[in-house]
Amino acid sequence: MPGYNLSFVNKLSRRCICPLCRLPMKDPVVITTCGHRFCDVCLQEFLSAGVFKCPEDDKPLDYSKLYPDNNLYTEITTSLIRCKHYKDGCKWVDQLGKLQSHLDICRYDAVSCPNSCSALLSRMCVHDHLEFTCPRRRVLCKFCGNEFSGEQFENHNGNCPYESVWCENKCGARLDRRHLSNHMKNECHKRTVLCQYCKREFVEETLQTHQYKCPRFPVQCPNQCETAKIPREEVEVHIQERCPSVSITCAFKEAGCKTKCQRFHLDSHMEENMKRHLSLVWELVRQQQQEIRQLKNALHASTQITNGSYIWKISDYKTKYLEAAYKGAKELTCQPFYTSRNGYKVSASVFLNGYGNSDGKYLSLYFKILPGEYDNILEWPFRLPVTFTLYDQAADPDKRKNIVERFVPDPTRKQFKKPHPDIETLGFGYPKFLTLETLKTRNFIKDDALYIGISVDNKTFIVP
């Protein structure tokens, strides 16, 4: 063992310090040939390497010249030291030689547990260890009265069935642990329970309050009908659609039937009043048809007011052309429109295979003036210039070449006089507007449709 690793009260002289371990020497020996001193253990460890020289001056060492240094031993062992547990609080100070006697009674020194539990603890902690922590101590459970070893008690403590505990739901109940499970499952008023109607979870003490508004709680029909109890959330649907006792109006109420009876009488009412209901419905249909006609006329009048320009799309061109070619001249007329608000009502017509001498060679296009809402306050004859445009539908806008024709009305012609509701005229226009060959070889027809623009110049129109 090397030198003393202890706290000396006074600093030792240099000769008391082992040159090898740098600690105060334990069992010092002296080499008489050179006078150097070492701890016996330190020197033996040095020499065990096979080097028989003095560690200090490197001179050969003779075992016969190696002796214990009793004077140095006495000097060291009579020096004052502090207990090796002084940092833990031990105040003992005395000669080094008395250290072991002190440690035999020092309350800070480590000792083995008297119960041989393998614990190593300070002498001052032995009593607490034997009473509270030793796994081999004997412990009496204060709840069930059984005795356990310390190790067994660690598992038993906190699990004793006879220990009095509080309810985990914090309901305020205190009872033996052995009764806790049954209490929390069947007795505790703060336990979680399932509503048998809506299947949602609630605290048991709130369940009754919940059932006063539970949507699935069965209740009696407000009309006291013979239907079994129904879920609260279905009461309204039951009353509106199924309850036989509810008073409802006849399905023909909108047609004029004023009857109101209970639902179970409704079928007999419908059978007994079939002819009457049919008569009411017919009268209602007649009124509605009249209203629809009035609304259509008003809508038509309001939606066909333009600024004088109208584009007419002629769809299904091929079919309509063949009908005109093989079934004789067939005039197609566009939707009438007003040239402006409070203006003239006009339209346009086209013969896809030509008209008269143009039949089979040209597309004929005409402008018509129709009887309108404001004719009595307009200026006659009609004098506003009219422009026809047949649109080229080429994909490249720069390559489009529309066909445009414009005319100024001749006031002497009958077509521009104030129109008469009972007299229909052909209109004024161009029997030879465009040859059919040009029409079909250019890009005027695309996706089986062509577009014709009708524009009335309103610049000289005098507002009534």
From TrEMBL:
Keywords on record: Cytoplasm, Metal-binding, Receptor, Repeat, Zinc, Zinc-finger
InterPro entries: MATH/TRAF_dom (IPR002083), TNF_rcpt-assoc_TRAF_met (IPR012227), TRAF-like (IPR008974), TRAF1-6_MATH_dom (IPR049342), Znf_C3HC4_RING-type (IPR018957), Znf_RING (IPR001841), Znf_RING/FYVE/PHD (IPR013083), Znf_RING_CS (IPR017907)
Residues annotated as domain MATH: 307-456
Main location: cytoplasm
Domain TRAF-type: 101-154, 156-208, 209-261
A molecular function (GO) term: ubiquitin protein ligase binding
Record bears the keyword Zinc-finger: yes
CDD domains: mRING-HC-C3HC3D_TRAF4
Domain RING-type, first and last residues per copy: 18-58
Subcellular location: Cytoplasm
Zinc finger (TRAF-type) residue numbers: 101-154, 156-208, 209-261
GO biological process: regulation of apoptotic process; regulation of canonical NF-kappaB signal transduction; signal transduction
Gene3D superfamilies according to UniProt: Apoptosis, Tumor Necrosis Factor Receptor Associated Protein 2, Chain A, Zinc/RING finger domain, C3HC4 (zinc finger)
GO CC aspect terms: cytoplasm
Protein name per the record: TNF receptor-associated factor 4 isoform X2
Lineage: Eukaryota, Metazoa, Spiralia, Lophotrochozoa, Mollusca
Annotated gene: LOC115224855
